[in-house]
Amino acid sequence: MDKYLEMIRIRFLMMLAYRTNYYTGILIYSINIGAYYFLWSAIYGEKDAIEGMSVIQMSTYVAVAWMARAFYFNNIDREMAAEIKEGKVAVELIRPYNYLGMKTMQGLGEGVFRLFFFSVPGMVIVSFIFPLQFSADLTTWLFFAVSILLSFFINTQINLLTGITTFFLFNNTGLIRAKRVVIDLFSGLLIPISFFPNWAQDILKYLPFQGISYVPSMIFTNSFSNNEAIQAIILQGVWVIILVIPIQILWVIAKKQLIIQGG
Amino acid sequence: MFYIRIFFQYVAQYMKTRMQYRADLFVEIFSDLLFQAVNLIFILVVFGHTNLLGGWTRDEIIFIYGFFLVPYALFSSFFNIWDFNERYIVKGELDRILTRPIHSLFQIVLERMELESLFGAVTGIAVMFYAGNSLGLKLSWADPFLFLLFVLGGMLVYGGIFIMIACISFWADARTSIMPMMYNIGNYGRYPVDIYNSVIRFVLTWVLPFAFVGVYPAAFFLGKEEWFLYSFLTPVIGIVFFGISILIWNSGVKRYRGAGN
């Protein structure tokens, strides 16, 4: 366990060394939030509420969805792809830790860093610019904390899956790009799932993506009742467990057919 | 003439290298398509809840998006200078460029072109025809020519802005993240400017004129007469911004001292 904690710490320190990159990152995210804020304001127009959400809840949704993305988002799929292509993965495999576990911990180190240096200050800045609404209810924050951690795990597991495909496809830059676009849409980052037409909602219900952005953002904006929130969090947890299965299967197959050239 | 000949020689070489890895090319085009589809889905879903967006209908917004895709496709095919700083200044590659017999910027355009992005233009035109059809738009004889003019204007606006930002590297060689920021600001131009507040509208029209890549020119084909003046300004703004960017580029190149050995 110690070595994984150490991994989180090292990644955190590594990110700290390059922190200037993050100030512009906040600006970029604020620009995106702004674009969607104006769009949604225009969409609401005179309407008080759409699908049970007021315009302020919507702006808060957009802001928190983007800022939370900074926490759960990571590039471990690309890192894995690079390590596999360069053959570095051979060294990683003989080291005394679980490669996938170690990658997850690196992602978590990155996430924790961005939570403190990106999401939190970003959220404060954005709340000065746009009218947002923060919950005063402690349980909401508690639910949100649990939910956002689970969304990190779901997103990371999907990244691990994409990363492992490099063993079979060799070049998966296109796949990684496509995955990112699909997740932005289906996770509810761009539009809350409840805004989709019913048939699409029925399909999305059975996919893990809504656990990435939709659930924590809905909890944060108080758009879920306590019961709904608990159910959604349980569902997130179930997905974390389910996703372990394909990862393990693919990982075992991948290790068997791995050929490292040279070294 | 010499420039045109060189251009086509580079295009031919480019095709050869890309055709070598067809699967890769296919996946890239596919993920571009997916990205455009996501933006369209966004518009469609949003209009499931409202009939008008700042006074514009669903099909009009789709039309604007379709139009935007065409100059954007041209821009991303020929102006891949977002990594100019790392690729040419920091590594000293610009030394090599300057020894070539053609204008340095043109040489970079040739080297860095990504013709597969042109597929975006095909998608864009298809989207425009679809939206125009459901709006009942009529095509007059002048429309194709104006379309071409506006598309080129839009491309020059995009190109001009990004060249200017690339030029920052001539004066300050630190890495800046302005480039990715610009790509995000560019997205604002895809929607009618009336939905933004007046400051943003002013910026999108005169400072970073991204509105001339999407809404303004598209408004002409949609018959929105209150925007006609802006529509016809598109090529002017394009030429002005591109012209200024070339001037800045030239004086930047004069300042360039090379990096390392």
From TrEMBL, chain A:
Transmembrane segments: 21-40, 52-72, 112-134, 140-169, 181-200, 229-254
Sorted UniProt keywords: Membrane, Transmembrane, Transmembrane helix
UniProt xrefs under Pfam families: ABC2_membrane_6 (PF06182)
InterPro entries for this protein: ABC-2_transporter-like (IPR010390)
Top-level lineage group: Bacteria
Protein name per UniProt: ABC-2 type transport system permease protein
Organism from which the protein derives: Cytobacillus oceanisediminis
Automatic annotation (TrEMBL), chain B:
InterPro entries noted in UniProt: ABC-2_transporter-like (IPR010390)
Transmembrane portions of the chain: 25-49, 61-82, 115-133, 145-172, 199-221, 227-249
Pfam short name (any one): ABC2_membrane_6
Keywords in alphabetical order: Membrane, Transmembrane, Transmembrane helix
Domain of life: Bacteria
UniProt KW Transmembrane helix keyword: yes
Keyword presence, Membrane: yes
PANTHER family according to UniProt: INTEGRAL MEMBRANE TRANSPORT PROTEIN (PTHR36833:SF1), SLR0610 PROTEIN-RELATED (PTHR36833)
Name assigned to this protein: ABC-2 type transport system permease protein
Source organism of this protein record: Cytobacillus oceanisediminis
